[in-house]
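Annotated sample (chain length 368).
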Amino acid sequence: MGRIEKTVFISYRRTNAPWALAISQNLTHHGYDVFLDFNGVASGDFESVILGNIQARAHFLVLLTPSALERCGETEDWLRREIEAALALRRNIVPLTLEGFDFSAPAISGQLPRTLAALKSYNALSVPVGYFDEAMDRLRRQYLNVALDTVMHPASISAARAARVEQAAASAAPAVTKLELTAQEWFERGVNATDHDEELRFFSEAIRLEPGFAEAFYNRALARVEKRDFDGAIKDCIDAIRLKPDLAEVYNSRGLARRAKGDLDGALQDYNQAIRPDPRFASAFNNRGVARWVKGDLEGAIDDYKAAIRLNPNDAEPYYNRALIWKQKDQLAAAIADYQKYLDVEGSVCHGDFEKVKQMIRELKKKL
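Output written by the structure step:
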């Protein structure tokens, strides 16, 4: 019979940090050796620290919310890479599903790349706020109390040292309250909402419960942009930046609001701020490309669209945007190629103005 291991790696989005910390604190209290990237490991240390600690631990817990898989289409996304590593190493993977997560929901299933498709076959555990202790008890008794035959490899010196640092930080952090987790649930309801007024209501409730919830301010800003309340969106972004100055998505969101108000220089500054801490932020490159195009910097816009496509080839928008520039520059073959690529990518998610783009292609072909 295989041995019972009590070593755990927790994979999560920064947005869901209170959940990850609460689970880590509970497992640690019950004698588990838990790795939680609490402070944020530098990107250059990903291979040695993050992958080394996945390899050295028997169990892999991944926290899944409606917002968790949003960037898994990007091949270098950390959450995606962590899950891929756990699958390849055949760890005991336990998906922990939080507020509103459902693998069968179209908005969620469409975010799951082929390399992560196997994740759906694992036995998931729902963790509601009101039954958190009961869920943790079930996690320990049923999901982690399993015999394993997989060979674990000792962590490298650097990975083990990093684990001790992160464990000390997580242990020193204040205990996560039910109020914080309830705010997380309201936040995920907002992410899952399809009505912008509902988004505003849900994110506002999350902020009321947890006034330091930077991601809720950021997401409320996005909802305000959709409602064309650009001043409100900018104010929410300022609050989010005050709480988390290194949150790249906030600068991207404020850039959208500033561009909508006609402040292209301010928008460009924000997109630069978004890309600086996160040079793999495909959406920020695409948005900066739009701002550069509007300002007449066609070559700069092309460079940004090229970067966006390289980072996330499954996003159709940069292909369409670049096609507009090729058409403007009278490079018709390149425009046709990008329009066709737009149709190919957009068609895979079953939406888009196909007939309009097909008509553009027919007209351009006549001019060749």
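Annotation: The mean pLDDT is 89.
Annotation: The beta strands are 3-4, 7-11, 33-36, 59-64, 92-97, 125-126, 147-148.
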